[in-house]
Design brief:
Length: about 325
C-alpha cells in the first residue's frame, strides 16, 4: 500500500483523495504533523506523523506494509525565508528519511516534489530548459536543488526508484495553499468572489509558470505509474502548462465578474518571484512519459469560480 507524508497540505490533500478513489481508501495511508479536513480524516487510515522522524515513519511502513511513499511535506518559499534552518531541516531530513528507507529496501518507490524554485536570477527566464544554470536565491529553492542532487545520487548509487517533478505554482479550490509565493493566484479567486477586489502582493507584470491542481495530480500519478526505463531524468522533470501575470488573471476573472478590481502592493515575495522563470520547457516530460496539460487560464478561471461559488453556497 501507499503512504502520503504531508497529506494535509495543498497538494497532499487532493493527492490523497485521488489515490483513495483510484486504489481504494484502505490502500492509502494519509499522514501529517497535524490533523486535516474532516473528509481526509474520515475516509481512510490516517496517522499523525513527523516526516523528520525516521523511526516513526519506519513503524508506519512496517505496520501497514507500505511499498511506496509520496513525500508532500515541506516548508514553502515565503515561510522558508522567515525560518531558514527549520525549512532546511524539514525539507532535507524528510527526504533523507524516505531515501534511506528505500536504500534499506523497506519501500520500493518514492515521489518527491521539486519546484521551479530550483532556478535562480541568472537562469534563462523564457522556456527554461531541463538542464541549465541553477543558482537558487531562496532557502526553499536551495533545499529543492540540493534534494534533486540527492535523488539522482541515490538512484545512480543505490538503485533507489525516486521520481520527481518541478511543480510550477499550483492553483486549487479544494485546499488552501500555505506560505507560497504563487499563492496570490489562489487568493485572487477567493477575494474576487468574497470582496469583488484584490490587492496583489506581486506586480502586475510578474509572469510565472502556473498549473491547475487537477493537471498536477494527474502528472504525479502518471510519472509514478510510468515504466522506470522510460525515465531519463532522475533529478526532477520540468513540468509546464501555462504562464501568466496578475494582470492577465484579473482580466480572465473580469470575463465572469465584470466589476472585479485589482490593486498592487509588492511585498518581500516580489524578490522571490523575480528570481524564478517566466515559462518552462517541459519537452523531456512530454517525450519520456507523455505529459500533456489539460487546463489553460480560461479553463482554470472557470473551474475555480464555479467550484468556489458552489462550495460557499
Ligand atoms: C511556492 N507554490 O510558492 C510554491 C512553489 C513554484 C512555487 O514552489 O513556494
Amino acid at each position: 500500500s501507499t503512504l502520503i507524508l504531508g497529506a494535509c497540505g495543498q497538494i497532499g490533500t487532493e493527492l490523497t483523495m485521488e489515490l483513495r478513489a483510484k486504489h481504494g481508501a484502505n490502500n492509502i495511508v494519509a499522514s501529517d504533523i497535524r490533523e486535516g479536513s474532516e473528509s481526509l480524516m474520515s475516509k481512510g487510515p490516517f496517522e499523525l506523523l513527523d516526516a523528520t522522524n525516521y523511526e516513526a515513519i519506519e513503524d508506519v511502513i512496517m505496520h501497514y506494509e507500505i511499498e511506496e511513499v509520496y513525500l508532500m511535506a515541506a516548508m514553502l518559499s515565503a515561510t522558508a525565508e522567515k525560518f531558514p534552518m527549520r525549512a532546511w531541516n524539514l525539507n532535507m531530513n524528510s527526504l533523507f528519511n524516505v531515501l534511506n528507507l528505500a536504500k534499506e529496501g523497506k519501500i520500493n518507490k518514492i515521489f518527491w516534489p521539486s519546484s521551479i524554485a530550483v532556478f535562480g536570477p541568472n537562469t534563462p527566464k523564457q522556456n527554461t530548459p531541463q538542464n541549465t544554470i541553477m543558482e537558487p536565491s531562496t532557502v526553499y529553492g536551495i533545499s529543492k536543488q540540493s534534494g534533486e542532487r540527492w535523488c539522482e545520487y541515490y538512484h545512480k548509487k543505490f538503485g533507489v526508484d525516486v521520481r520527481s517533478l518541478r511543480y510550477p505554482g499550483l492553483i486549487s479550490w479544494k485546499t488552501m495553499p500555505g506560505g507560497g509565493t504563487t499563492d496570490y493566484a489562489v487568493d485572487i479567486y477567493h477575494e474576487a468572489l468574497n470582496a469583488g477586489k484584490y490587492q496583489c502582493f506581486l506586480s502586475e507584470d510578474t509572469q510565472l509558470p502556473m498549473m491547475y491542481m487537477e493537471d498536477a495530480i494527474r502528472a504525479t500519478i502518471t510519472i509514478m505509474e510510468s515504466d522506470s526505463n522510460a525515465l531519463t531524468v532522475r533529478s526532477s522533470y520540468n513540468l509546464g502548462s501555462m504562464s501568466f501575470t496578475p494582470k492577465q488573471i484579473a482580466g480572465q476573472i473580469r470575463e465572469h465578474i465584470p466589476e472585479f478590481e485589482i490593486s498592487y502592493a509588492s511585498d518581500f515575495r516580489q524578490q522571490i518571484a523575480d528570481s524564478w522563470p517566466s515559462s518552462i520547457d517541459d519537452s523531456a516530460a512530454r517525450n519520456d512519459w507523455g505529459w500533456k496539460p489539460d487546463f489553460d487560464l480560461a479553463a482554470t478561471t472557470k473551474a475555480m469560480l464555479e467550484n468556489l461559488s458552489a462550495k460557499s453556497s
